[in-house]
Amino acid sequence: MLASLAGDAKAYRLLLGAVRDGLRLYFRRRLGADLAADEEDLVQETLIAMHTRRQTYDPNYPLTAWVHAIARYKLIDLYRRRRSRQTVPLDAAGPLFADDETGATLARIDLDRMLASLAPSTRRLIERTKLEGRSSAEAGADEGLTETAAKVRAHRGLHALSDRFAKRGDHADG
Amino acid sequence: MRTDDLIAGLAAELKPVRTSAPTWLLGLAFLSGVVAASGLMLGWLGLRPDLRLAMGAAPFWMKAAYSLSLALFAFALVERAGRPGARLAPLMCLVFLAVAVIALIGVLQTLRAPAALRWPMFLGGSYAVCPGFIVALSIPILITVLFGLRLMAPTRLVLSGALAGLLAGAAGASVYGLHCTESSALFVAFWYTLGISLTAALGALCGRYALRW
Prior knowledge:
By secondary structure, chain A is an all-alpha fold.
């Protein structure tokens, strides 16, 4: 980690590889069957968080304590997001709205409006990767970004949206 | 995107960073809050008229030593709260020790005074406004400290917010000490600590939302 902070990419790669394995194990043990699909997303989110906040590592403390605290934070963050979104079980709610197309239209309008609140390049990245199904590399190339930069920016954009969305959900619930 | 590709990409864009940088930014944010609070105090409350005289006597420095030592410990605590996995307990003990010391001095000083003076020593002349003024002066500092902490990586949001409030409250109390003319240790131990605690509670409330990243 010390070599990584100094800018040694090779050491950093080895470190992230080792951390990834540890994180998979960590999240696998803690995620229930209903959230198991989020395991790899959480691993990636944690790695990105480590990367963007690597200057907060204090060399006087063990690296594992630092990674563990970030992983724990990301796990709690996931629980919090899921709780605010999944208060209604989808199986029960599905039939009620199945014949109602206004819901889908409203969702589409909401989605457009939410995306419009993002920076233009972030919005295009999310539209291309998440809605049109293109790869991060392709979408990034259109914006003149590397694949990783595109991935990080799309991730941040979605995070910002989910924060706003979750807040509105809280208000609606009471 | 596969995780391996993500790792390769992150490694490819790696730049050297200094682990001391967030501490300096936090310090800068904190100091700008203190400047704002000082401006607020000067424009709104004003310095105590006998400041020069008071600076030659012990009570002024007793108040300053208490609030400044709390601010010092709290700054170290906030700085650690922004670093995932850092231990906070040893510094927390110092905070409680500082409160215990001023409370002990206050009680001993009050017990040695004539009985008729004890109640006035506790209430002073400004007990009703002191905690409120401290909270008010602390708010600009709380805002800038929360901004500084957002640049780090707090993982326990409510606790981190409370510590930011502790720092803001202790610094706000230090600024308020330049206006306040009270001189009894018991007054400081109770009413200053109350103002600082209220600010810490406010910080805890804000931290939950303001510190998400």
